[in-house]
Structures are given as C-alpha cells and as structure tokens.
Design brief:
4 helices, 0% strand, mainly alpha
Amino acid sequence: MRSAKLLGLYLLGIALIGGWSLSHVFGGTVTTDNFALVLVLPLAWIFSYWPTMGGLLLAWKMYRLQANVEGWAESADLGLPTERAEHELEDTLTLLAVQENAIPERWARPLVRKLMAAARAKADAERAQGTRPIA
C-alpha cells in the first residue's frame, strides 16, 4: 500500500514538474538564466526519486520488522525452549515478518535470528537480575 502511494506521488510529480517545464519551454518564457533549471528539474525528479524513496521505504520496512519481532519475542515465552520449539518460533516470526512487511524471506530470516538472540540475551539478563519472573 505504501509503495502505491509513493508511485502516485511520483506520477503526480512527473505531471506537475513536467507540465511546468513544458509550459516554460513551449511557452517561450524560458530565459538563459533558468534554462538549466527547466531542463534538469524534471530529469532529476525522474531519475533520483526511486533511488531515494526506495532506500527510505526499505529502511522503514526494516524498522517496522525490528519493532514487530521484538514485540513478538517479548510476548513469546523464551524461558527454556527446546531446540525444536525455538526453530518453530523462528519460522513463525519469519513468516509473520514476510507477510506483514512484504519483504523477501532471505532478508527477514537473518534479522529475526539476530533479534531473537538479542531478546533472549535481554530476557536472560532480566531473569538474572530478578526483574522478570520466570513463567
């Protein structure tokens, strides 16, 4: 959904900037002082929008994934899981991350593993301090 909004913004920008540029070029109001702006602005919009917005969109998805996995890991009982239960939890979290964030599994799985390890270390530290009861 978010990428559809970004595509709409991109097309709106092309229509507005391209229309403005074409009206100046074909209207005869372009001077030598602003000729470069009239030519470069539409080209900059066309060729620099997606590299910029694509990176920002990916960073936002990774941030949301991290927040979601941390929430899932905290809500799950990571007390003393068996190895099989831990793999099932990892698979479930990876599947949820892929479905909710629309990212490939090859990106989600290493991040889920890293976040599970961090959540496990945090839970162990809290358990050692006695601030979190063992379930």
